[in-house]
Specification:
The chain is of the alpha+beta class. It has 5 helices and 6 strands; from the N terminus they run E-H-H-E-E-E-H-H-H-E-E. It has a 4-stranded antiparallel beta sheet. Helix 3 runs antiparallel to helix 4. The two termini are 18 Å apart.
């Protein structure tokens, strides 16, 4: 493909600030999901099985790791659905704080599409399962939803960082920080098909 021009700016947050965003989602997610669940069902929170607590904890840990992968897979789907990028343009790799797995596209997308890509895991894996969990009385779904919303904390920080960018602005994910690099307006290939 054609070489992309250098970024003319960025809308990012520092990794410690993104972590604070993620920590802030914990009480918000818990209040927004646990409180309605308690009011609707009045059930006590679940307890680990007494006969195999280590196995239960390992199972929960495995589900949380699977959630990390699923979160990034949903970002990949978002690049295809909203960014209209070629399949070969999207890849999973390390980046950001620590060795976190991140989905990135070699092709730019519009700021509008990138916002949808960032929000998709929070909505699809967090809000919808959480609402369903409250509706049907499933603690498992509610706990999953809280975890997925906490995982979306850096995505929410990135959304905050780019709040002032007009929708058609060409952007690409920043290689190291939550947020995006802003590309020149003249680069319009593959934007908002």
């Amino acid at each position: 493909g054609a070489e992309l021009p250098a970024a003319i700016g960025e809308r990012t947050v520092a990794p410690p600030a993104a972590m604070m965003f993620a920590f802030a989602t914990v009480p918000l997610a818990m209040i927004s999901l646990f409180l309605p669940f308690q009011l609707r069902w009045g059930l006590a929170p679940p307890r680990l099985p007494g006969d195999r607590p280590v196995s239960a904890l390992l199972g929960i840990f495995a589900l949380f790791l699977a959630g990390l992968l699923l979160h990034e897979a949903v970002h990949v789907a978002g690049y295809y659905l909203f960014g209209h990028v070629r399949r070969s343009a999207v890849h999973l790799g390390g980046g950001g704080a620590g060795m976190a797995l991140r989905a990135r596209s070699a092709e730019p997308v519009s700021a509008r599409a990138y916002r949808a890509i960032l929000a998709l895991p929070a909505v699809f894996l967090g809000v919808l399962p959480g609402a369903l969990g409250v509706a049907i009385g499933s603690w498992r779904l509610v706990i999953w939803a809280v975890w997925m919303l906490v995982l979306s904390g850096s995505d929410l920080a990135a959304l905050w960082a780019m709040r002032d960018l007009p929708g058609p602005t060409p952007v690409r994910a920043h290689p190291l920080r939550p947020g995006c690099e802003v590309l020149p307006d003249k680069y319009v290939q593959n934007i908002d098909k």
